Amino acid sequence: MDEIKDLQKGITEILVAIGKIETEIKQLSSMSGKWEQTEKLAIEALQSTKAAHKRLDELSKQLGELEKKIDEDKRQTKDDKKWIVGTLLGAAALIWNLIKGGAK
């Protein structure tokens, strides 16, 4: 009789241990699913970051080109102003000479 009780007790302990193992397997399975979701999100975030970095590089390039064009426009404007001033001074000198020469 004691042997049967010991055997039943042993079987009960084995069944409890199996139940614990099943619970742990379910938890590991759940964690595995969460890991896969996390990995998927991480990959998407990396791809998004790479795309954003590429866009920023392109915008930086365009900004550099705009700055270069603005500098060129400033130089051209200075050259235009010098030409206008030179032309006006030349015209004023010519008019002055005509007035001065016509007054004689």
Provide a descriptive summary of the structure in words.
This protein is an all-alpha fold and 104 residues long. 98% of the residues lie in helices and 0% in strands. The protein contains 1 helix and no strands. The model has no long low-confidence stretch (mean pLDDT 88).
For the termini, the CA-CA separation is 152 Å
Task: Estimate what percentage of residues fall within beta strands.
Answer: under 5%
Largest sheet features = none
Helical content (DSSP H or I, runs of 4+): over 70%
Q: Rounded to an integer, what's the Rg over CA atoms?
A: 44 Å
Along the chain, the helix and strand elements come as H
Structural class: mainly alpha
**Helical segment count:** 1
Query: So what's the oligomer here?
Result: single chain
Q: Low-confidence segments, ≥5 residues, pLDDT <50? A: none
Shape: rod-shaped
How many β-strands, per DSSP?
A: 0
